[in-house]
Amino acid sequence: MLLFFVLLEGHLSIPRWLQVAGRLHPMILHFPIVLIVVYTICLWFRPAPFAGQLLLWSAFAAVITALAGVFLLREGTYEGSAIQWHKWLGTLTSLILLILYLWKPRQQKWLAVLPLTVVIVAGHFGGDVTHGAGYVLAPLKPTNPPSPPLDEALIYHDVVYPILDARCMECHNEASSKGGLNMEDSLQFERGGRDGKPWDTTADGMGLLLGRIHLPADDRRHMPPADKTQLTAREAAILFAWVKDGAPFGKKVTELDPADTLRMIAARLLKSNDNESFDFPPADEKKIASLNSNYRTIRSLARNSPALAVDFYGATFFQPKQLQELSAIKDQIVSLNLDKMPVTDKDLSDIAVFRNLRQLNLDFTRITGAGLHTLAQLPHLQTLSLAGTRIKAADLDQLARIHSLHKLYIWKTGIDQNSIASLHQRRKDLDLITGFNGDTVRIKLNPPRLETEARIIRDTGVMIKLRHFVPGATIRYTLDGSNPDSGGQVYTAPFLLKDRSRFQAKAYKPGWLASDPTTAAFYSQRYPPDSIHLLLPVDSNYLKVSPHVLIDADKGDLGCGSCKWLGFRKNGLAALLYYRKPVMIRDLTFSSIVDIGSFIFPPTRLEVWGGPDEHHLKQLGTLTPIQPDSTAGRKPIPAYLTDYRIEFPPQKISCLKVIADPVKKLPDWHPGKGQPGWVFFDELLVN
User: Fold this and answer.
1) Can you tell me the mean pLDDT for 581-594?
2) Of 73, 530, 625, 649, which residue has the fewest beta carbons closer than 10 angstroms?
3) What proportions of the chain, in percent to the nearest 5, are helix, strand and coil?
């Protein structure tokens, strides 16, 4: 019967009741394996009179297992070379066992190794079918190489492929192409499987790939299957953005528009060439505090990083000894900003002691170029800005010898184009920024650059720093979200922002078109809670993220899969915020994100409760955010950050309770209609 079914397998039609028997194959295959092992041990180490019976039972169990495998194969779930090897080796195992039982050869002891070997090889191919090619030996293989920098990354190979490899290729590989879909080969992946092409941007749900992902988890067509590791919100957002962009395979990330959702996610996922880890110890915090002043700020370059950035302000207050005072933290300084300070060539020797310096800004200083040779003592210097200085063409030779240097700003220096071209020929790896010199071309200015990273204002405020690279450009800004074209203030120097605002800035210059706006939201957090307790669990994808991220004053970005966000789907947000001492508050802001394509909607209702303790709370305020309508389904809206503020009469409290309910069922116009929506929060801001 087994031989008949195997040879005519392509013509079999399996009734539903027999499919149940086929699905028992992964369970019953253990029986012949154990019997074969016991039979081999008996012959080699302790001959037993029942060895012949073991051989007969092994052959019978192998036949039953192989028959069940044929029934399972006819469901059409498995395809590829691995399943064919598995099928024929399983059949061969049963035939070898039956021949050994009927033949009873004299060298039965040695021949017993044959079925054991065949069943091990068959099991190896079975593992490839179930878990993907190379599953058994995967731990012995070298780990994946680190991700390339953002500037070199390909959209598919470096951003999309790792997700498919981790979540899909266990079943959809060349050896086991379930549903006829092979994702390992990009051409075959694009061609699709038996059900058609994986994506179609003109269809509802944008095709099979996204449609299967967004099906309810209990739907048998949902991908990945319910018993497999599911996609995170960020992974689903990446696949959605990739398909929406036309599913490009050979395109680089940097070829995408800077505002493209996929590029913004990739920028957070991949390291840029500027990112670096540091192995030196952190500086003493008390020493840093003593060196900070109104005209010299010292800040950490990144959270939990020992690297420091130093900025100087107020040219009239600058003295060279202020550089010498930094010798106590010289090993930790990696960024030094002396823009518009009266720094001379003599002061460069004081700068050269900062051996870990990566970025040096000497724009519009009194540098003439005579002391630039001292910068060769900085082995890690990567970016040097000399715009508006009096350096000469001959000084470029000294800079060309700094091999670590990758970016050089020399606009408005008077260096002729021939000298710049000559330097480029010698150092093709050096990025030269020379500015724009056209006087008759009317083009749009690029937006001003906001160099302030912090977005949450504490007691000391936030220093706002703007920059523009076109000489003579004027920057105007507003703090209420209005257009700076009329009534905007002129930016002349960094200023301290002490209250929340909707910041907007634009650049202007006679003969040029005004730039697009640079926008940013600055939030206030006057009374950060001392602790937080979640009353309901977060979604399973965020169990490892501490609830403290909601009160740590560290704003998240559009990459909601990062550890700065907490996601809620089934339960919604319900949390208690505690204060050691009573505080007088008047509002609370929920900082959130909306990404329609990734099922992230505004909450349906927000509540704030307060009181002296968790047992005596009264409702302080509620809010019902506006939900997106069907226009968001016809024209996809990029992900955006938002917030919801609830104001109430001033209250003295020691405990707050916050509640946020997600959308229970997504609307009919959404690809995931009927499924629950997500809500994400990165900060709860109390004032």
Assistant:
1) 95
2) 649
3) 35, 20, 45
